[in-house]
Amino acid sequence: MEATIKDKANKAAVTFLQRRGYDILEEGWAHGTDSVDVIARDDEDMVFVDVLVNSAGLDMPEEKPDRGKFERIAAAYLAEAAEDEDLSVRFDIVSLLVIGESRALLREGRIFHIIAFLSSTARCRSKPCRRESGP
């Protein structure tokens, strides 16, 4: 069975986040009718990530975060997780605009990256790709 555009976008986003130093804990986690694409750790932050993709047109996907959904997912996940340390919770959106057969423009916050999209790994072509340490 061939992967959908959304599956490929999720895989590319996960690879991108791993290369930025995130530890991926869950992919496609759901509770009731709510779901989130990725749950990860970024140092002391527990990060809940939605991945949005647009493969038609030249506009980035519209980002309309559902705060209530994120909060319900975080509460449900943390209630089940064996985390006994203090940590911060963060909600992120990674947006991808497919710009060619094998490339996508990825937006994380206010930063854009061009990544390999349909290949087996997502490579970051903007510098720096890895998260820089510092303030």
Please provide a written account of the structure:
- There is one protein chain.
- The chain starts with a helix and ends in a 19-residue tail after the last strand.
- Strand 2 and strand 3 form a beta hairpin.
- It contains two helices and six strands.
- It has 135 residues and is an alpha+beta fold.
- The chain has a six-stranded mixed sheet, sandwiched between helices.
| Total E-strand runs | 6
Structural class: alpha+beta
Distance between the termini: 45 Å
**Radius of gyration, in angstroms, nearest whole number:** 15 Å
Looking at the structure, what is the overall shape?
A: globular
Number of helices: 2
Beta fraction: 35-45%
Tell me the helix content: 10-25%
Strand order of the largest sheet: 1-2-3-4-5-6
Uncertain runs: 119-135
Largest sheet geometry? 6 strands, mixed
Keywords summarizing the entry:
single chain, 135 residues, alpha+beta, 6-stranded mixed beta sheet, 2 helices, 21% helix, globular
How are the secondary structure elements laid out?
Blueprint: H1 5-19, E1 23-31, E2 34-42, E3 45-54, H2 67-80, E4 88-98, E5 103-108, E6 111-116
Parallel strand pairs: 3-4
Antiparallel strand pairs: 1-2, 2-3, 4-5, 5-6
Short description:
This protein is α+β, with helices and mostly antiparallel strands. It is 21% helix and 38% strand.
